[in-house]
Design brief:
The complex is a heterodimer.
Chain A (H helix, E strand, L loop, with lengths): L13 E7 L5 H9 L7 E7 L6 E5 L2 E5 L1 H4 L2 E5 L1
Antiparallel strand pairs in A: 1-2, 1-5, 2-3, 3-4
Chain B lengths: L1 E7 L5 H9 L3 E5 L6 E9 L2 E7 L11 H13 L3 E7 L3 H13 L4 E6 L1 H6 L2 E3 L1 H8 L3 E3 L8 H12 L14 H15 L2 H4 L4 H10 L2 H10 L4 H19 L3 H20 E3 L6 H10 L4 H23 L3 E3 L2 E3 L1 H15 L8 H20 L1 H17 L1 H14 L7 H10 L6 H6 L7 H10 L8 H12 L4 H27 L8 E3 L8 H35 L11 H4 L8 H11 L1 H13 L6 H10 L5 H9 L11 H9 L5 H13 L4 H11 L2 H28 L6
Parallel strand pairs in B: 1-4, 1-5, 5-6, 6-8
Antiparallel strand pairs in B: 2-3, 3-4, 7-9, 10-11
The chains are: A alpha+beta, B alpha/beta.
């Protein structure tokens, strides 16, 4: 079974970031890192947009929206 | 004059601090060659003048986004005397991440700890003295929305510029395994004078470890013989760190930065509450709700659209000489008076009169006529943006527009351009793309927004529908509305797929807490942006207007008595005034152009008269009606009262419903009017995109129209 990613979570789920998947484009990786998607950071899935994409998460005291395509790159462990 | 640069995350309250520092003495422009907005002003303090530049709001200083590159290049190349980094005290960890990167650059730094009131309300207490001690730079607490702490901020800035307070930040540490490599690389870089002259060696070292493509390029360029060794050393260092930490090197560095920020947080932040933004939470539960969210969005966007256009073009609320005028009509009133004032010139110097009245006065009037629209649009969109709602619009609509290579925020530009089918204007529409931070998305939005049915296309539709589809007005308008969206979305998809390619900027967007916008700041911002339109786009618009005027005015036909044989066939001698006007237009460069194109345009069903009208439509789409009237020798046809022209076309054997429909589609799709083109030129930063926009939409229009016309003929439509 492959590792769980942010893509697999539903609203209300809490998780801890494990890593950004290897092989992601450097621009995307850097952008995610810059927004605080770093190992060990805890996040809460707030909600999905009406059509299920993007997803809103809160982490480090703020809210962040990202597309499900990008959410696939974030490996997590559920809390 | 000493200079300050203001840096900070978007939503840190940079702009309101900037406004307090500079007052109204500011100007908005663009950084050369890019679409990034540049604001600068002058701050005064005790008789001293300091120039202040508001850098684009960024989360980081990488080479992956235009704004971040602009911000960091400004700090490196313009070498401001002081960088003021604005931090949101209620969101310190992520904001410190940027501060740390400015510290890495070794720039003289001062921190404005903003929004301390919001932080306090959320139970976040920041010990700013401790923060200052830990980072080695001055920290001033402020509340930008209320102007609290501005005096202290300015005073500390002046002291810093004068060298009275230490502004050299501590060296950032990343843990010993990384620090060692940074030290080694920094030492190597110190041996290259051309590099050290511009960059801090430690910053270079960190950027090389991160694999920053821009810095690698600069090192190769400026490093001379030392460059290969330095780059090779960096590659080895990256390998060593990756082996040691078991992760990608840029990830390690970003994590260490966040670790450093977290460490500082632990020492100077006390939490006394839950720290959640409860109000934003509550609002979002409704506004982003699966069912209510889209409904509220439709309501807000429709309200935005109708307010912009009612306030500026429909509601007569400006009292003037005993009457009431809508702002646009009020501007028009002035230019009509101006035109009246020079009317006396006509009999004596007809060419000069036409130049002044038709080219210059009409040109300036054309530029200023858009001002009420642009002002209201900027005001309302800035208010929505500052409140935080625009980010929710992007969130809710992203899925739909993403498919076509656009994004959620594109919808604003499309709606303002006429996406609701009830009028609109692509000029403020193109300007409304400023809410898009992603360069490519913004460019694509700008290139497809003019396909929407703006208010100027409506009179053309009205005239042609009345002529050929008199009993199907509603159905036709609905069809045209749907058609415009199909064309725009398909064009966006094609542009994304084939023209503006490359990696799509990842859509990773902060949803900021809701704020009540500050009116003063809004007005200032709106005024600056509107003024920039007048100044920058205005000159281009005026120049093109004069050019178009000349094309339609020269050369003048010889006297009616000795009209060349070629024209006698069309215009009999002893012609009426209307016929003379038609003759003059047919004889002009525009007329010749229209004739020359007839062999091609006949495939779309257009004769030379229609071609001339379409050339006129480049001035403004509604001009198609008037020009067609003139060229058909019907005298002046006002776009609003075109019944006679409709009747004429309906009765003309050369015309038929198929041609009418093809013409409507052509008018919808072909080149944006030149005012819009001038604005695209301003907003995209180059003529290339303005000309591209004109060319590609005309080609699409022609292909579509030929398909419709030839297809219709093949189906037996349009044959009387």
């Amino acid at each position: 079974m492959s590792t769980k990613t942010l893509f697999d979570l539903v609203s209300g789920d809490r998780a801890r970031i494990v890593r950004i998947r290897g092989g992601s484009a450097p621009g995307l990786r850097q952008r995610l890192l810059d927004m605080g998607i770093t190992r060990g950071t805890e996040l809460l899935v707030e909600r999905h947009a009406p059509l299920g994409d993007p997803v809103e998460i809160s982490l480090k005291g703020y809210s962040l929206a990202l597309r499900m395509n990008e959410a696939r790159h974030i490996e997590i462990e559920e809390l | 004059m000493a200079g300050i640069a203001i840096a900070g995350n978007p939503n840190a309250g940079k702009t309101s601090l900037f406004n307090h520092l500079t007052g109204a003495a500011q100007s908005v422009g663009n950084y050369p060659g890019v679409t990034v907005e540049r604001k600068e002003g002058v701050a005064r303090f005790n008789g001293r003048r300091v120039s202040v530049v508001d850098l684009p709001g960024t989360y980081s200083l990488t080479a992956y986004s235009q704004e971040e590159l602009v911000a960091r290049n400004f700090i490196i190349e313009d070498g401001p005397d002081l960088v003021v980094d604005v931090l949101d005290a209620s969101n310190l960890e992520r904001h410190l991440y940027l501060a740390i990167q400015i510290m890495e650059m070794g720039a003289p730094l001062l921190l404005a700890l903003n929004m301390v009131d919001v932080a306090k309300r959320r139970g976040i207490q920041v010990d700013h003295a401790k923060l200052s001690e830990l980072l080695g730079v001055p920290v001033v607490p402020t509340v930008g929305s209320k102007g609290t702490g501005i005096k202290e901020l300015l005073q500390r800035c002046i002291e810093a510029i004068d060298g009275k307070v230490a502004v050299s930040p501590r060296a950032v540490t990343y843990g010993h395994e990384v620090d060692e490599e940074v030290d080694t690389l920094a030492e190597l870089a110190t041996g290259v004078p051309l590099l050290v002259a511009r960059y801090s060696p430690r910053w270079l070292a960190v950027k090389l470890l991160e694999g920053d493509p821009e810095v690698e390029k600069k090192v190769a360029e400026l490093g001379g013989e030392a460059a290969p060794a330095l780059l090779e050393a960096a590659r080895k260092a990256v390998k060593a760190i990756e082996r040691h930490c078991g992760d990608d090197c840029s990830t390690v560095i970003a994590e260490r930065r966040y670790g450093y920020a977290a460490g500082i947080m632990r020492e100077c932040v006390t939490l006394t509450g839950e720290a959640r933004e409860m109000n934003t939470d509550r609002i979002d539960r409704i506004v982003c709700n699966r069912f209510l969210g889209p409904l509220i969005l439709v309501g807000v966007v429709a309200a935005l659209f109708f307010t912009v256009f009612k306030v500026s073009t429909e509601w007569a609320w400006v009292p003037w000489f005993g009457g009431w005028y809508a702002p646009v009509d009020w501007v028009e009133w002035f230019f009509e008076r101006l035109a009246d004032a020079v009317a006396g010139l006509e009999p004596r110097a007809p060419i000069l009169h036409s130049l002044i009245s038709d080219a210059l006065i009409a040109g300036v009037g054309g530029v200023l006529g858009f001002v009420p629209l642009i002002f209201t649009m900027f005001l309302l969109i800035s208010a929505l943006e500052d409140s935080g709602y625009i980010a929710r619009v992007a969130f809710i609509l992203d899925r739909v527009l993403q498919t076509f290579g656009l994004q959620g925020k594109s919808i604003l530009a499309m709606i303002v351009s006429g996406g609701l089918g009830a009028g609109g204007c692509a000029v403020p529409g193109v300007l409304a793309t400023r809410t898009l931070r992603e360069e490519k998305d913004r460019l694509i939005t700008m290139l497809v927004a003019p396909f929407m049915n703006c208010g100027a296309k409506l009179p053309v539709y009205a005239m042609l529908i009345a002529a050929f589809f008199p009993h199907r007005h509603t159905q036709m308008m609905l069809l045209l509305w749907a058609f415009s969206w199909v064309v725009a979305l398909c064009a966006a998809w094609v542009l994304r797929k084939f023209v503006i390619r490359g990696e799509q900027t990842p859509f990773v967007m902060e949803l900021p807490p809701y704020h009540v916008p500050v009116l003063r700041s809004l007005l200032l911002h709106t005024w600056e942006r509107t003024w920039m339109y007048v100044k920058k786009a205005g000159t281009i618009i005026l120049a093109i207007n004069v050019l178009l005027w000349a094309l339609m005015y020269f050369p003048q036909p010889p006297d009616a008595a000795n009209v060349s044989a070629r024209f006698q066939a069309i215009v009999p001698s002893h012609a009426s005034e209307a016929e003379q006007a038609a003759n003059a237009l047919a004889h002009s460069y525009a007329g010749r152009f229209g004739r020359a194109l007839e062999p091609i345009t006949q495939y779309a069903g257009f004769d030379w008269r229609t071609n001339i009208a379409l050339v006129g439509g480049f001035m403004a789409k509604e001009v198609v009606v008037g020009t067609l009237g003139t060229v058909m020798a019907m005298g002046d046809v006002e776009p609003g009262q075109s019944e006679t022209l409709s009747q004429r076309l309906a009765g003309d054997p050369a015309w038929n419903p198929l041609k009418g429909f093809a013409l409507m589609i052509f008018v919808m799709v072909y080149a944006p009017c030149f005012v819009c083109m001038a604005v695209i030129r301003r907003e995209s930063g180059s003529w290339k995109w303005a000309l591209f926009s004109t060319a590609y939409s005309t080609i699409i229009a022609f292909v579509l129209t030929v398909l419709i016309y030839q297809g219709g003929l093949a189906l037996g439509l349009g044959i009387p």
